[in-house]
Automatic annotation (TrEMBL):
PANTHER family: APOLIPOPROTEIN N-ACYLTRANSFERASE (PTHR38686:SF1). GO terms for cellular component: plasma membrane. Its main location: membrane. This is Apolipoprotein N-acyltransferase.
């Protein structure tokens, strides 16, 4: 019983530390160093657990602590807040249990091999839980590098899972020391320890090199796009589209006159709170204080608006972005949000007519949200005579690497996220979202702009530094002189995608097959012993 209580405490401790890796009310940028030790207690509890019942209990404690400590702000999500938090807690507990079962199966390996197996399994786990319909890419070890400037640069090769592997290996090495401490620990584990520090050194060195190279590329960009990012500060669940637009206009007027040429004004997600075409049909009259159509014409520039697009034929709607020219005409195709929030925005199989009708009848709503299919780019003519091509990930799409990667593969020179986190009512929520989005700029080496309702409205340069930012919960606007990147080649991550994640899955499967296949297990063990014997002689 005493051991069970101790292991329970370990699981809770890991849940707390993993929550503090990301920005929180305690540390606004997160605590990066915690990523290197956050799951050590959880791993120790896993190694010493007695059977799957105890492992399940540990997973439940860890999952619930992690969810409620790190994302308590989900409770403010209208009437569904606690339901979402409970569902998240159950989901995290379930996937953590699967990961810990896999880690438990590595007990057949010698300690020096087990640390590698645990690092690869944790990397595969973080990737698999961040893809698919139920994807939860939020609180990963990979995203704990909010204070990092150099090591983080390696993600333009590996994607974020490269950082999962580095931190996973660190946690595995420390947990192994606490689990089987020996006088000759270093001698016994010399190669994994040396390899870990070599990885840190090489990643940091690469970071210094890429930082220098990115700055050089920025200096060589002679053309600039002059973009005004607008941040409202209203609860969009308790206002009309007209009030949101009035707030938008006030923010723009607050920075007038603008001395440099203005290429585009950007609003936040669903600033036009309703069907885009219905709102535009009223734009000559509303808002009464300053009609939207008049504002667009008088500003004499392009506008990017977040709005909804309703399809009356299919009783569905899309969360969309529309680019309008200086006379108020839509230019190009709108972009429809593709990655929807499970159950809050996306309902399973709702695109099947009879299932969709069942949802409509049960929920008492006429329209269901659907995901977009086309990865369309926007083309912005610049006052200087050039053009800027950019992609617009909407809402939390900037937390998903594959969305931004697709935009860049199509030729995007910049990424422009529009989002609305005002409902969360907490700075930690805004900061977490921004810190995760920051990774997209580094992975793709494209500047990232964010226009938000309540925060964080920022300009992130191509090496991940926050170059400009509007403080949270302010109604304001910010002019960004965005260098137009001359694209010569893409990063390895943009070209190859999740190659590192797939490698982690493959290696993890090999280790797990070894746990079930005694002959393969013994072969792996003999190969490992022979390799380390040779390495010891050489040393």
């Amino acid at each position: 019983m005493r051991k069970l209580l101790l292991h329970s405490l370990y699981a809770i401790t890991s849940g707390i530390m993993l929550s503090l890796v990301l920005p929180s009310d305690i540390a606004s940028r997160g605590i990066t160093l915690l990523a290197f030790i956050a799951i050590v207690p959880l791993l120790i509890a896993t190694y010493k657990s007695r059977g799957y019942r105890e492992l399940l209990w540990i997973s439940i404690l860890h999952g619930w602590t992690h969810a409620w400590m790190g994302r308590y702000w989900l409770a403010f999500f209208q009437n569904f807040g606690f339901t979402i938090l409970i569902a998240l807690s159950i989901g995290l507990s379930g996937v953590t249990f699967l990961a810990l079962m896999a880690i438990k199966k590595t007990a057949y390996l010698p300690a020096r091999s087990r640390v590698w197996a645990v690092a690869w399994i944790w990397t595969a786990f973080e990737y698999l839980r961040s893809v698919g319909f139920l994807a939860d890419p939020w609180a990963l070890l990979a995203y704990g590098f909010g204070q990092s400037r150099y090591i983080i640069q390696v993600i333009d090769i590996t994607g974020p899972m490269g950082l999962s592997f580095i931190t996973g290996l660190s946690n595995a090495l420390i947990a192994q020391w606490f689990t089987t401490p020996t006088r000759h620990y270093y001698k016994h584990m010399r190669l994994p320890i040396q390899m870990f520090f070599m990885i840190i050194f090489l990643s940091s060195s690469y970071g210094v090199f890429r930082l220098h190279q990115s700055k050089k590329n920025l200096e060589s960009s002679t053309e600039k796009a002059h973009i005004l990012l607008v941040q409202q500060n209203l609860d969009s669940w308790n206002v009309t589209w007209s009030e949101l637009v009035e707030e938008h206009i006030r923010a723009v007027q607050g920075v007038l006159p603008i001395n440099s040429p203005l290429d585009m004004i950007v609003s936040s997600e669903t600033t036009l709170l309703g069907d885009f075409h219905s709102i535009m049909s009223l734009s000559e009259m509303l808002p009464v204080s300053y009609p939207l159509a008049t504002f667009i014409r008088e500003m004499n520039t392009y506008h990017l608006f977040g709005a909804m697009s309703v399809n009356d034929d299919t009783y569905s709607y899309y969360n969309a972005a529309f680019l309008m020219n200086n006379v108020g005409d839509v230019t190009g195709s709108p972009y429809f949000k593709q990655q929807l929030v499970p159950f809050a925005e996306a309902l399973p199989f709702s695109q099947v007519p009879f299932i969709g009708n069942m949802y409509r009848d049960f929920l008492g709503i006429p329209f269901l949200q659907q995901s977009g299919r086309d990865q369309s780019l926007f083309t912005l003519p610049l006052q200087s005579g050039g053009v800027l091509q950019f992609g617009v990930p909407i809402c939390f799409e900037d937390a998903f690497p594959h969305i931004s990667r697709k935009f860049v593969r199509q030729g995007a020179q910049a990424l422009l996220n529009i989002t609305n986190d005002s409902w969360s009512q907490r700075l930690s929520s805004q900061m977490q979202h921004m810190m995760i989005a920051r990774y997209r700029a580094i992975e793709t080496r494209r500047p990232l702009l964010r226009a938000t309702n309540s925060g964080m409205t920022v300009y992130v340069n191509t090496w991940g530094d926050i170059a400009q930012m509007i403080p949270a919960f302010e109604n304001s606007a910010m002019m960004v002189d965005l260098p137009v990147m001359t694209i010569s080649m893409n990063t390895i991550y943009v070209l190859l995608g999740e190659w590192f994640s797939y490698t982690a899955i493959l290696i993890s499967l090999i280790y797990l097959i070894g746990a079930y296949n005694q002959s393969l297990s013994s072969v792996l063990s003999r190969v490992g012993k022979k390799f380390f014997r040779r390495e010891r002689r050489a040393g």
